[in-house]
Write a structure and sequence with these properties.
The complex is a heterodimer of chains A (about 230) and B (about 80).
Chain A (H helix, E strand, L loop, with lengths): L2 E5 L6 H12 L4 E4 L10 E4 L19 H11 L4 E4 L1 H8 L6 E3 L7 E9 L15 E8 L3 E3 L2 H9 L3 E6 L18 E5 L5 E4 L15 H13 L1
Parallel strand pairs in A: 1-2, 1-3, 3-4, 4-11
Antiparallel strand pairs in A: 5-8, 6-7, 6-9, 9-10, 10-11
Helix pairs in contact in A: 1-5
Chain B lengths: L1 E8 L6 H12 L12 E6 L5 H16 L5 E7 L1
Antiparallel strand pairs in B: 1-2, 1-3
The chains are: A alpha/beta (about 230), B alpha+beta (about 80).
C-alpha cells in the first residue's frame, strides 16, 4: 500500500502518522507539501492533525483552499480513500468532502486525553479490522471537535450508516457523560457516502504501538494495508 | 470602496462562547442580558468602484471562504 501524507504549515501529526503508516506498510509514505499541485498515484491519502495556518479564520478553512486540496478532492471523487484526522477532519469538512462542521468544544476548553469509542461500522477500508461494536481507546487533542450538522443531515448519516465512531464509555455505552466535547449524537467520526473517506477527531496514530501505551490505532492502519494492498 | 462583513451563527446553532460571555456579564453585575451571540467582523478594502459588482464579489468571498454556511450567516455592507 502506497500512502501520501499532506503537509501544511502548522501540521504537527504528519510525522506521527508517517511512522504509524510505515510500521504497518513497511514503506515510508510520500510527504506532499500543500503547495504542490501534483499527487503521484497512491492507495491512501492522509490529511493529518495539527494547526494548519494557525487555525486562522476557522480551523481548516485556509487549508481547504490550498492547491493540493483540489487534487485530494478529485482523487476522493475517483475513489481513492482519504483519512482526515483531527485538523484533517476539520479540513476535509471545510473542503466539502464530508458534511457538517467541527465547532468549538461545548466547554470551550482544549481537551487532551484518551477517550473510548464505539466502532459503529466495520464495512470500510478504515474499520474493517475492528470488531463490530468494539470499544477502542484513542487520544483526542482538540479545542474544536464539537461535531455539528443540521438534524436532517444527522438523520441521513445515521440512516445510511455513515457514522464511523461514537464517543462511549469503557463499556461501549453511548451517553452524554461519555461525550467529551458536545458533539451531536456523540459522533467522533463519519464516512462519506461510499465509505472511502473517513474523518475523525481522535488520533489513531498516537496509540499505534504498545510503547505509546496502546495499539488500538494500529488496527486501523493494519486494516487499511489489508484492504488496499 | 470598503466592504464590512458581519458573520454570525445561524439561529439554533449553540454558541458556547456567547453563553460564557453572558455568564461573565451577569457575574459582573450587568443584569438583563437575555442572550449573547458572538460573531466576526471583517473589513475589506476593494479596488472595485461599482457597488453591484463589489457586492456580488464579496458575497462570493463569503460563500467560498469567509463564512461556513453550514453554521454561519453573513451580511455585507458597502461604504
Amino acid at each position: 500500500m502506497k500512502a501520501a501524507v499532506i503537509v501544511f504549515p502548522g501540521s504537527n501529526c504528519d510525522r506521527d502518522v508517517a511512522v504509524a503508516l510505515e510500521a504497518s506498510t513497511g514503506k515510508a509514505p510520500l510527504m506532499v507539501w500543500h503547495r504542490d499541485t501534483a499527487l503521484p498515484a497512491v492507495d491512501l491519502i492522509v490529511v493529518p492533525g495539527g494547526f494548519s495556518y494557525g487555525d486562522y479564520l476557522r480551523c481548516g478553512a485556509m487549508a481547504a483552499h490550498s492547491p493540493i486540496l483540489r487534487e485530494v478532492k478529485a482523487r476522493a471523487e475517483a475513489g481513492t480513500p482519504v483519512l482526515g484526522i483531527c485538523n484533517g477532519f476539520q479540513i476535509i469538512t471545510e473542503a466539502g468532502l464530508l458534511p457538517g462542521v467541527l465547532m468549538r468544544n461545548a466547554q470551550l476548553k482544549f481537551i487532551c486525553k484518551d477517550v473510548f469509542l464505539k466502532v459503529e461500522r466495520t464495512d470500510s477500508p478504515f474499520t474493517r479490522a475492528y470488531a463490530q461494536d468494539a470499544v477502542v481507546r484513542l487520544p483526542i487533542a482538540h479545542a474544536e471537535g464539537n461535531y455539528y450538522a443540521d438534524a436532517a443531515t444527522l438523520d441521513r448519516l445515521e440512516g445510511e450508516g455513515l457514522v464511523a465512531f461514537r464517543y462511549a464509555g469503557a463499556d461501549g455505552s453511548v451517553s452524554a457523560a461519555a461525550n467529551p466535547n458536545g458533539s451531536a449524537r456523540n459522533i467522533a467520526g463519519i464516512f462519506s457516502e461510499n465509505r472511502r473517506v473517513l474523518g475523525l477527531m481522535p488520533h489513531p496514530e498516537r496509540l499505534a504501538e504498545d510503547l505509546l501505551g496502546g495499539s488500538d490505532g494500529k488496527v486501523m492502519f493494519d486494516g487499511l494495508v489489508e484492504a488496499l494492498s | 470602496m470598503k466592504a464590512k462583513v458581519h458573520i454570525t451563527l445561524k439561529n439554533g446553532v449553540l454558541d458556547p462562547q456567547g453563553k460564557a460571555v453572558q455568564h461573565a456579564l451577569s457575574s459582573l453585575g450587568f443584569g438583563g442580558v437575555d442572550d449573547v451571540r458572538q460573531g466576526k467582523y471583517i473589513e475589506l478594502e476593494l479596488s472595485e468602484t461599482d457597488p453591484a459588482k463589489a457586492r456580488a464579489s464579496v458575497e462570493q468571498m463569503c460563500k467560498s471562504l469567509l463564512a461556513n454556511t453550514v453554521i454561519e450567516n453573513y451580511s455585507v455592507e458597502l461604504v
